[in-house]
Amino acid sequence: xxxxFVVPADLDAVQxxxxxxxxxxRMRMHNPLCYGCGEESAEGLHLQMFAGEDFEVTATMDVAAxxxxxxGVIHGGVLSTAFDDVMGMIxxxxxxxxxxxxxxxxxxxPIPIGSQLxxxxxxxxxxxxxxxAEGIAHxxxxxxxxxxxxxxxVTIDVRExxxxxxxxxxxxxxxxxxxxxx
Length: 182
Ligand SMILES: CCCCCCCCCCCC(=O)SCCNC(=O)CCNC(=O)[C@H](O)C(C)(C)COP(=O)(O)OP(=O)(O)OC[C@H]1O[C@@H](n2cnc3c(N)ncnc32)[C@H](O)[C@@H]1OP(=O)(O)O
Known about the structure:
Blueprint: E1 48-51, E2 56-62, H1 76-87, H2 90-94, E3 98-107, E4 116-127, E5 130-138, E6 147-155, H3 158-162, H4 172-180
Antiparallel strand pairs: 1-2, 2-4, 3-6, 4-5, 5-6
The protein binds dodecyl-COA.
């Protein structure tokens, strides 16, 4: 990796949340309209995420024709969206909701339209509200990654963070009802 992404040395202790998805279990969508993993996002990536051992998440994504960037290959922005969402599941293994504050992707090989991308993401550490994660994407052999991602997520109070924006969602009524429950 050729960037300034640095995980601090003085990390906090972390534990897997008792209510986190079990190993091998599909992780629930955080929002059915999410462009990354939402089943109700017609044009979205439709990532399928699974909880792994310890602090790992795996995911698969079919590289559909609508994701083309260069001729016959995936668009780089689509791939970075996928990394954002896959690594964005890591905080849910330790508990808090969190949003991306930093995301970077190293593109190592072209990724063909029609292929199935597989992802493995893992926690690198937590320091206060910051959660550091790393992910790789591969086409079947995890020892031959086609891209690598790094991200920092910051924990949020979900109700507070989204309060002014719920009305923009197609599921505004549902979210308003859910967030007004004690
Ligand atoms: C319905 C269920 C939904 C559940 C939601 C699940 C969604 C997951 C999947 C999708 C993920 C996304 O795409 S999220 C969408 C894209 N992201 C966003 O929209 C986030 C926009 N950013 C923000 O709203 C804000 O920056 C916040 C709220 C995240 C943080 O602001 P804040 O609360 O004022 O906190 P602040 O003090 O600035 O930062 C806290 C700590 O993080 C550090 N920090 C802040 N920014 C950075 C940065 N770019 N790089 C490094 N470190 C940073 C600070 O130095 C500090 O460290 P220290 O002092 O402790 O050392």
